[in-house]
Amino acid sequence: MATLSINSVRKSFGAVEVLNNIDIEVEDGGFLVLLGPSGCGKSTLLAIIAGLENSSGGDILIGDKNVNDVHPKDRNIAMVFQSYALYPTMPVRRNIGFGLEMRKVAPKDREAAVQRAAELLQIEHLLDRKPGQLSGGQRQRVAMGRAIVRNPDLFLFDEPLSNLDAKLRVEMRTEIKRLHDRLGTTTVYVTHDQVEALTLGTKVAVMKGGVIQQLADPETIYDRPANMFVAGFIGSPTMNFLKGTLEQGDGGLVLRHAAGTLALAGLQQDVAGFVGREVTAGIRPEMLDSGDGPASLTGVVDVVEPTGPDTMVIASVGGQLITARLGPKDRPRPGEPLTLTVDTTAINLFDPVSGNRI
Amino acid sequence: MAATRSRSKLLWDVISYVVLVGLAFIAIAPIVWTFLTSLKFEEDIVTRTMQYIPSRITFENYVKLWNQSGYPVLVINSLIVTTTTVLLCLLTGTVAAYAFSRFQFKGRTQLMLGYLVVRMFPAVLMIIPLFIIMRQVGLLDSTIGLAIAYTSFLLPLFVWMLKGFFDAAPKELESAARIDGTTRLGAMFMVVIPIARNGLLATCVFVAIAAWNEFLFALMLTTSQGSRTWPVGLQLMVGEFQLPWGMLAAGGMISILPVIVLFAIVQRAMVAGLTAGAVKG
Ligand SMILES: Nc1ncnc2c1ncn2[C@@H]1O[C@H](COP(=O)(O)OP(=O)(O)O)[C@@H](O)[C@H]1O
Ligand SMILES: [Mg+2]
Asked: For B151-185, how does the pLDDT look when each residue is reduced to its tens digit (9 = 90+)?
C-alpha cells in the first residue's frame, strides 16, 4: 500500500493538449475517482499513472518514489480494464496467476494465491474455463481477481463496470466497495458515471477537457460544486439553474427571476459583491417540495414522471423549466398551477459569466 | 405475383449455379487433366483422337521421374529454399509487423508505403540488380541466395498481412501483460502471438506457397543441379526434340502435393480463428 502523488502532469498528443497541469494527492488507502465525460483525458491520466503512456511533463510518485522512468511491470500496480483484457488463450487460473508467474512466484504459492483470490470473488468453479466461456459479469470478476491476487500498492480501474447491464453494475459496485474496505489498497477509479463516483470515492476529481474542475470529497462535490459544469454533471435529474438578479430586499437577499422573487435566507455563500448583478441559482430537484413556504416558486406543471419512490415534476417557472423531486403520492396534472417551496440553505449561486460558484 | 417472384428467383439460382460451376470447372479441369495424363502410357497421350479417360493406367511416369531425372534433388532444393524463406520472414517480419502495428515512430508511414511500392514493380525489374548483387556476394546459384531473393519480395507481403492480424489483437491485452510483469517483447510473445497464431500460420503458408511455386527468380539465380528448384527443373525437361508429357504431368502432380497439404492447414486454422476469436463480450 502506498500514497499516490500526481504533480503538474501534462500530456499532449502532437499539438493537442489532453491533460493540463494535473495535481492530485491520494492518501494511503484512499479511493480516488476520476470522473468526467468521454474524451476528457481520464484514461490517459490512468495510463500515465500505470506507466503505459509517457507524460509530457510532471511527476508521478507512488509512495515516496518517483516512478516517471519505471516500467509498468516494476511499479507494483494492478489494473482492471473496461474490456477486462483477459488473455483469451489462457484458462482463468492462468489469467489470474499470470502476474505471479511473471514474477517467478513458486507454483505452489501461486496456486494458493489464485485459490484465495478466487474464493474472495466466488469464481472457484470457473478456474479451468477460458475467458470466451464466461459471461460479462464473470469476466469482470476474473479481471478483479487478476488485480487483487498480486497484492499491489495501487489498484487502477478504467471504467470497469460500463460493459455490464444495469443490475449487475450495481452489484459489482457494491462488491468493489466491499473489496476496498477489506483490502484497503489505494485505488484510482475512472468512470463517467456520477453515481459510481459518489458511492465509491473518498475523493472525486471532476475533469473536463483535460482540466480538473473540482477535486474534493463526494459530499462537497455534491453540495458545493465549484462551477456550473460540476453542478450539472453530478446528480440525476440534473440541478436546476434559475437565472435572475440578486437584490437586497427588506428581509435580506432575494433573487428576482422572471416569475417573481425568491427569498434567499440561510445562503451558505458570501455574495455581497454580486448584489445588483445577474446570477444563476443552482437548485437540486430534491430541495423542492410541493406547498407554500417562506421561499417558494410558482409555475405551471409541464410533465409528470412517476418513478416509483419519487415523482419527478417538470414545471415552467416564468419560462424556465424546473425539475422537482416530489413524494410518490404527489401527482399534479399537466397544466395545473404548482407552488414549490425551496430549501434555500442548500442553494448555490453561480456567476453566469464564468460559470464559477460565487 | 408470388409465382412470378419464385420463378425469377429460380432463374436467378440457375444462372448463379451455371456461372459457379463454370468457374469451378475452369479451375479444376486442368488439374484433373494433368492428373489423368500422368497416369497414361506415353503412346496414349499424343493420339489422333482425344482420349480423356485413360483406358489403361500406369505409374511408370512417376517411377521414371523419381529415379531417372534427378527430381528428388529438385524437390529437396525447393523444400530448403521454401523453409529458409519462411524462417527469414518469421525472424525479421514478425518483429517488424509488431512494430508497425504498435508504435508511432518517425517515418513509419513512409516505410510502410515503401514496402508496398516494392511490391508494385514487376519482378523482372528486380532480377538484374539482384543477379549482380548475388554474384558480388557469392550467393549466386545457392539455395540461401535464392531464399534471400524470395525474402526480398515476400517480406513486404508478410509484414502487411501480419500487421493486419496484430492490429486485430486488442492493445489493452498488452497493457495488461506489461502491468502483470512482462516486457513489451514478452507481451508480444506471450499474449499477442498466441492470439494471432492462426493469422501467423496463414501468412507463413502464403509465403511458403509463393516461394515453392516461384519460377522466374529461380531460373535466373540458379544454374546447377545443386540449387535448382522443381519449377526450373521441370521446365528444363522440355527438350528441343522431345516433350515428355507424362513425366511433366507427374512432376506437376508431385509438386502440388505440399501445396494441397499446406492449404488444408490454413483452411483449418482460419476456421478455428473465426470461431475462437472471442476476446470481448
Ligand atoms: N494515442 C492517442 N493519440 C492521439 N490522441 C489521443 C490518443 N489517445 C487519446 N487521445 C485523445 O485524448 C483525449 C482523451 O482521451 P481519453 O483519455 O481516452 O479520454 P477518456 O478516457 O476520458 O474518455 C481524447 O480526445 C482522445 O481523442
Ligand atoms: Mg476512457
From this structure: 988 999 899 989 988 998 899 999 999 999 999 99
pLDDT in tens, B254-265: 999 988 888 887
Shared domain check, B15 and B87:
no
Please give the residue range of the domain that contains residue B26: 2-38
Quick one: closest CA in B to A151, which residue? B180
CATH code for position B231: 1.10.3720.10
Q: What is the value of ipTM here, to two decimals?
A: 0.86
DSSP A104: T
In a domain, A324, yes or no: yes
Does residue A42 have its Cβ closer than 6 Å to ligand 1? yes
User: Which residue among A43, A44, A53, A211 has the greatest number of ligand 1 atoms within 8 angstroms of its CB, and so is best to mutate?
Assistant: A44
Mutation target among B106, B173, B178, B179 for the A interface, most CBs of A within 10 A:
B179
For residue A7, give the H/E element and its range: strand A4-13
CA atoms within 13 A on the CB side of B276: 17
Beta strands at A337-342 and A288-290: parallel, antiparallel or unpaired: antiparallel
Task: Kindly report the nearest CA distance between residue A346 and chain B, in angstroms.
Answer: 44
Q: Which pTM does this prediction carry?
A: 0.83
b vs e for B188-213, b when ≥16 Cβ sit within 10 Å of the residue's Cβ? Answer: bebbbbebbbbbbbbbbbbbbbbbbb
B79 CB-side CA count, 13 A: 10
